[in-house]
Structure formats: C-alpha cells, structure tokens
Amino acid sequence: MKLVLETVTKKFDQKAIIEGASFEFEKGKIYGLLGRNGAGKTTLFNCISRNLQLDNGQIAIEEGDQRDDNYDNTSVGFVYATPHLPGFMTGYEFVKFFVDVNKERLAVIEDPQVYLARAGIESKDQHRLLKDYSHGMQNKVQMLVTMLVKSPVLLLDEPLTSFDVVVAHEMKELIISQKDHSVVIFSTHILQLAQDLCDEIVLLHEGKLTGIPSERIHDADFEEEVVKLLSTSHAENNTLNSILLQEGGQ
Q1: Mean per-residue pLDDT of the chain
Q2: Which GO terms fall under molecular function for this chain's record (predicted)?
Q3: Which residue among 26, 144, 145, 224 is least packed, with the fewest CB closer than 10 Å?
Q4: Which long-range contacts link 8-12 to residues 24+ away (Cβ below 8 Å)?
Q5: What is the domain-level CATH number for residue 116?
C-alpha cells in the first residue's frame, strides 16, 4: 500500500505553502517529516486528511492495482499536536463512545479500562473529565483511539513532545507496531527522535518534499547535512541531495 502525492499545491492568500510537492510513502516504513517552523508540515497533513482542499495536484491511496483518488477522510488517522477531545466526557466514557461508533472497524473489542491502562492511564484517572487531564494524558488518549482503528494512513503531528521518558518509550513501541498495517508519517522538530524511530526521513522545504537516503540517517554528519538542506534554496538543495545520493551509493 502507498500514499501517493503528485504535484500537490496548497495556497493561502495567493501564497503557496505547499508547491508542486510529490512523494510516495509506503506501508511498512515510518517516515519522519522534518521542516523549519512554518514550512507547512501541519498544512500538508491537513491536505492528506482531507481537512483542506488542494489548489492543484492529487493525493491517492494505492493498493496493488487499485488507486483511490477520492478516499474518505476515515482512511486517515490524525493525531494532532494539540489534542482535540470532548472535555465534558471522562476518559472511560470517551473511549467507550469511540469503540461503540467504530466497532465495525475494530478487529478485537475490549473494555475501555483495558485500552486506557495500555496507554498508561491509571484506573484512578479513567473516570475523571478529559478537561482535567494534563496535556500529556490527553495526548495519550488521542493516540490510543486513533491507533485502535488501524487506518490505512496514520499521521502524527509532533506526537511525543509532551511525554516523559518512560511514556515516550511506550508510545514509540506503539508507533512502531502501526507500520505493519499503515503508512506512518510523523512530523517532528527533534532530529534525534527521527533518527531513533524512522526508516526514512523526508524534508519539507520551500514547498517541496525531498527524501533522504535511509542509509544516511545514522551518519555522523547527518545533522549537519539536514541543516544545510533546510538552510538553502530548493535549487541548491537539488545539488546537495544529489551529493547525498551519490555518497549513499558508495
């Protein structure tokens, strides 16, 4: 299965945030999306999830010989940087509601307590209102329910920044488990996290998407090369990326 972006363009007030971006993301890999502040990472995610309409180009999900250019937004799981949860519900009530609504999409249905405990929400907190949860706890619940349905595409916008070391490790393991059935893309500004977790890194810079050879991710000078790519024009990037590709093949 692939998520295919072809010459995708998205503008706001005539300013192109994404401009002619093309890339193929495959199931079985975790992609780290890196870019400077304001580069358009969240805009790109909103385009993929159908929250925003494209100004030009196509986004499709391909599986075998089948191509779906008009996939429904339910095909995309989206974990937002800022959790979007109903604060008037308890953690237990929300997970129960989510499971009831999506029961036909779940391979196995368990008690909400089991799911919440798996996400590190203790029993004493499961019946508290979500509005009283910390940001990190809300993020846990959001990630939990998004991953339950095993959508073909999973987008994670800065997913681990609000977790402590132990929980971040648990969430990493959960993210890794998702690549068996989903195209997984997460945006982050933490290069070390991308190196630890990703099979491939994709840069979003000046509206374009550029893949970095996977064999270069753990090179000693990788951080320096990424900084160069994100600090130069797209034309210069083409030259630098060609050098990366040549060196990666040596």
Answers
A1: 86
A2: ATP binding; ATP hydrolysis activity
A3: 224
A4: 8/44, 8/47, 8/54, 8/56, 8/57, 8/58, 8/59, 9/54, 9/55, 9/56, 9/57, 9/207, 10/40, 10/43, 10/44, 10/47, 10/52, 10/54, 10/55, 11/55
A5: 3.40.50.300
Measured between alpha carbons, how far is 198 from 7 in angstroms, rounded to an integer? 24
Domains contained in the chain, number = 1
Residue 72's domain comprises 2-248
- Measured CA to CA, the distance from residue 66 to residue 64 in angstroms comes to 5
Q: Which two tokens stand for residue 238?
A: 């083409």
- What's the rounded Cα separation, in Å, for the pair 1 and 153? 9
70-81 pLDDT per residue, tens: 998 889 999 888
Alpha-carbon span 130 to 128, nearest angstrom: 6
Rounded to the nearest 10 degrees, how much is the dihedral formed by the CA atoms of 192, 195, 196, 199? 160
User: So what's the pLDDT on residue 236?
Assistant: 54
Describe the strand order of the beta sheet including 200-205 as a list of residue ranges: 76-79, 153-157, 183-187, 30-34, 200-205, 208-212
Q: How confident is the model at residue 164 (pLDDT cuts 50, 70, 90)?
A: low
Contact 85, 107 (CB under 8 A): no
pLDDT 10s digits, 174-214: 788 888 889 999 898 778 778 888 899 999 999 999 998 77
Residue count of the chain:
250
